[in-house]
Specification:
This protein is mainly alpha-helical. The protein folds into two domains: 45-153, no CATH class; 159-225, Roll (Nucleotide Exchange Factor Grpe, Chain A, domain 2). The chain is built from ten helices and six strands; from the N terminus they run αααααααααββββββα. The strands form two sheets. A three-stranded antiparallel beta sheet has the order 1-4-5, with no helix packed on it. Strands 2-6-3 form a three-stranded mixed beta sheet. This is GIL1/IRKI C-terminal domain-containing protein. One of its GO terms (biological process) is negative gravitropism. Pfam families: GIL1_IRKI_C. It comes from Salix koriyanagi. InterPro entries: GIL1-like, GIL1_IRKI_C.
Length: 226
């Protein structure tokens, strides 16, 4: 998506600030993590719901839940996303792709990328565009959907978490995505960089923790005190 934004002449600095403000980036290229954070936030929204959708829909019965999600996982795990939704346009995964595409790709964004919002209109009507951009999106959506299937086919069920802005870094729950960011200092812990934003959420499965990915910034302590 960043490549399309560059090609369309977007001001990437302004776009990054609109997602996460008051962040001191260690490197100029690190602003890509702000966009990754936005995509993750949209794609994982509703993960805590069994139907992965904030809209009111019938929930699967608890006694059938594990079997249902194992079936969904098995159907998609070896398939290409675009081929799967072409064969099963009414499937729950196809609906997931449709909903997330409409949430993620704003009409003005699509118009600036492709000259019109015809692709969005196609998705809105229940069809899917045969474009490399949508194919890339669908392949990105596929592992998110599979992870949700695994989360609800396991016992105990997995839960999702992210870290609040300004929190101190913890290697137990977090992984830093910024290569240049220092982790901690025993001599001056108050000077440690803190979490600017969560890039990719983490997960808990029983006592097992899959760490979330965070961006650390030295500016956060100043912001929090102000």
């Amino acid at each position: 998506m960043v490549d399309e934004m560059k090609s369309a002449g977007w001001d990437l600095d302004a776009a990054a600030k609109s997602i996460v403000s008051d962040v001191a980036y260690w490197r100029e290229d690190d602003k890509c993590f702000a966009f990754e954070s936005f995509v993750s936030r949209v794609m994982f929204d509703g993960f805590h719901l069994t139907n992965f959708c904030p809209q009111k829909e019938s929930q699967p019965e608890k006694k059938n839940q594990q079997r249902l999600f194992v079936k969904r996982f098995s159907e998609l795990k070896s398939a290409k996303a675009t081929e799967f939704i072409a064969h099963k346009p009414r499937s729950t995964f196809a609906k997931f792709c449709r909903d997330k595409y409409l949430q993620l790709i704003h009409p003005q964004m699509e118009t600036s990328f492709f000259g019109s919002s015809s692709k969005r209109s196609l998705v809105n009507s229940g069809e899917f565009p045969d474009t490399s951009f949508f194919a890339t999106f669908a392949e990105m959506a596929r592992p998110v959907w599979l992870l949700h299937c695994l989360a609800y086919s396991s016992e105990p069920e997995a839960s999702i978490f992210q870290v609040c802005r300004g929190c101190r870094f913890s290697e137990v729950y977090m992984e830093s995505v910024a290569e240049d960011a220092p982790r901690s200092s025993e001599n001056a812990p108050e000077a440690d960089p803190s979490v600017a934003f969560t890039v990719v959420p983490g997960f808990r499965i029983g006592k097992t923790v899959i760490r979330c990915q965070v961006y650390l910034s030295p500016l956060q302590n100043k912001v929090k005190r102000g």
